[in-house]
Design brief:
The complex is a heterodimer. By secondary structure, chain A is of the alpha+beta class. Chain A contains five helices and five strands, in the order ααββαααβββ. In chain A, β1 and β2 form a beta hairpin. Chain B is of the alpha+beta class. In chain B, β15, α14 and β16 form a beta-alpha-beta unit. Classes of the chains: A alpha+beta, B alpha+beta.
């Protein structure tokens, strides 16, 4: 067990911790994680998310997140928030209720959206709503 | 085995990436399967943050859907094909009105399949095309009789010929020097609207409108009126400009095309304008307002305790109440006003050339008219009330979406203050929403 396994979805200051975490550590999280770069291409896709969506990482890594991986988030509620934060040069750390279509089933989730101008990697964290 | 798994994965991804929304539901709308593009389009519409039921998700923008499915007689087939669902008003020249297309198939007695796509761009292109078509159809087709006259720069009738008498029954003495409002029933046109049409004719080369016209003996006909500038010379001083007005009686044509037109422009339940028609009219009115700012008000209406009405007396009774509300509203406003059902139990009225005070007076008349209504449904006598919010256009308001939002926040204040009330929007309300603005 790595130390990251103890991190919870709501952990404060999570962004800087994720940046330095190993792929194994990200895979041990008990919530989904998608990391994408400034061009919107997926760079990290953890094991939890891969199992929930039914897609292996190699089908997803390097693809454009909002058009080729998670089109369901390509609206003002999610994608626009990242764009706005990047445009304004501000830090984004917001948690919203959302519905994902994992394996074509509507699944209630909480999304935590993380980005900061200081680092190129941005994250969407996905936790199944209780 | 591994092969099967990777095929399954490829299929999953195929559905994840499909550029149209696909949803499978039960007959009551509850969602069994749904792909990501559907979520992209529907989540911003969902009021409770859920995507459990397709009818619920679309209730505010396509309230007819549940009904269409309920009343679909066959065991399978197309319930609706490319039904247009307007999401937002847009801002002319800046932001397009957002529009979805919705097709629903009934697969069998337990399943529906819906296809949803964003047709905002298609609609924009179509609209440009429609304008030029309207022009050709007015000029080229089926003119059996028409009244032709020239108008002076202020829209007064300048010249006489027999065609005016044939179509309208007026004599020369009765029309020369008079405003063209003479040809319309009271309340169907205002002097502001006449000025607008002259400006539009100058800008576009013509101004077309359909509506009720009036003969000298007081009888009505459904008329098509076109105003065109007599000269397209932009440098001409205003006092030398003149216009041609052509009035055609198209009562017959109207009846022929009526059912198709009504189906696309009117709300299925109440018969008044639907959401799309309302936003189209609103967009035109806002363009006019931008050219010449002048009073323009919107009234937002919500039936009080409507859920309780449905729960207590059943949905048919609720429908009856909505129909009564629409009739009462139509009877309260002028003909030039546009009244519409926007969704669920939400209604609105668009009032040109009406300031906040005038709109509040009208809203109050409507509210008290509703209070005295008795709706009969299933042998029961139902009484109901409405809450009303009123807002007027000013330079701080960006467009129809925001103006409606202001009226909504006033409506929310009226609800909060105990319902069965009319509240005007006040400038010190915060613009962002009822939660912070309306108390």
């Amino acid at each position: 067990m790595t130390q990251l396994a103890n991190y919870v979805f709501t952990q404060p200051e999570l962004l800087s911790l994720l940046a330095s975490a190993s792929p194994e550590a990200l895979d041990s999280l008990d919530f989904g994680l998608i990391g994408f770069d400034a061009d919107g291409l997926v760079r990290q896709y953890n094991d939890f998310e891969s199992r929930a969506a039914g897609l292996s990482p190699q089908r997803v890594l390097g693809q454009a997140l909002f058009t080729h991986v998670a089109p369901c988030m390509n609206n003002f509620m999610v994608a626009q928030r990242f764009e706005d934060a990047a445009g304004a040069g501000s830090t984004l750390d917001e948690t919203i209720d959302y519905v994902l279509t994992l394996r074509m089933r509507p699944v209630k989730v909480r999304l935590r959206l993380l980005s900061t101008p200081a680092q190129s990697m941005r994250y969407v964290l996905i936790q199944r709503a209780l | 085995m591994e092969n099967l798994e990777s095929e399954y994965e490829a299929l999953l991804q195929f559905l994840y990436l499909a550029p149209v929304g696909i949803v499978q539901t039960a007959l009551d709308g509850s969602i069994a399967m749904i792909n990501p593009l559907s979520a992209q389009l529907l989540m911003p519409l969902s009021r409770n943050g859920n995507l459990d039921n397709l009818f619920d998700a679309l209730d505010q923008v396509a309230p007819e859907l549940r009904n269409l499915v309920d009343q679909f007689p066959q065991s399978h087939g197309t319930v609706c094909d490319s039904l247009r669902v307007q999401l937002s008003a847009g801002i002319p020249g800046k932001k397009d009105a957002r529009m979805l297309s919705l097709t629903v198939l009934k697969l069998d007695e337990s399943r529906l399949m819906a296809v949803i796509s964003d047709i905002t761009q298609v609609v924009r292109r179509e609209r440009q095309l429609k304008q030029s078509e309207a022009w050709f159809s007015a000029v080229l087709t089926g003119i059996t009789d028409y009244a032709l006259m020239s108008l002076d720069p202020s829209g007064r009738i300048e010249s006489w010929n027999q065609s005016i008498s044939r179509v309208t029954g007026h004599s020369e003495r009765a029309v020369i020097g008079r405003q063209i409002s003479l040809f319309h029933p009271p309340g169907a046109i205002t002097s502001d609207r006449i000025a607008d049409r002259l400006v539009e004719a100058d800008a576009n080369g013509w101004s077309l409108d359909n509506g009720w016209c009036l003969r000298a003996d007081g009888s009505r006909f459904w008329g098509n009126t076109m105003i065109a500038p007599l000269s397209r010379d932009d440098d001409l001083p205003e006092e030398e400009r003149g216009y041609a007005l052509i009035i055609r009686d198209i009562t017959d044509k109207r009846e022929a095309g009526d059912s198709v037109l009504r189906a696309s422009a009117c709300d299925y339940l109440t018969g008044i304008a639907n959401r799309r028609t309302f936003f189209e009219a609103a967009e035109l009115e806002l363009e006019r307002w931008r050219r010449f700012p002048r009073p323009l008000s919107v009234v937002a209406i919500d039936a009080d305790f409507f859920k309780q009405i449905n729960d207590t007396w059943g949905h048919p009774a609720g429908d009856e109440v909505l129909r009564n509300l629409a009739q009462t509203l139509s009877a309260t406003v002028r003909e030039i006003d546009v009244v519409a059902r926007l969704g669920g139990e939400e209604f609105a009225a668009l009032l040109p050339s009406t300031d906040l005070e005038g709109a509040v007076r009208l809203a109050e008349r409507f509210r008290s008219a509703v209070e005295s209504q008795r709706v009969m449904a299933g042998g029961q006598e139902i009484r109901y009330t409405v809450s009303v919010g009123v807002a007027s256009m000013d330079s701080q308001v960006s467009g129809m979406d925001q103006l409606l939002k202001l009226a909504d926040s006033a409506l929310y204040a009226a609800k909060k203050a105990g319902r069965n009330q009319v509240w005007p929007h006040r400038a010190d309300h915060v613009l962002t929403g009822p939660e912070d603005g309306a108390t």
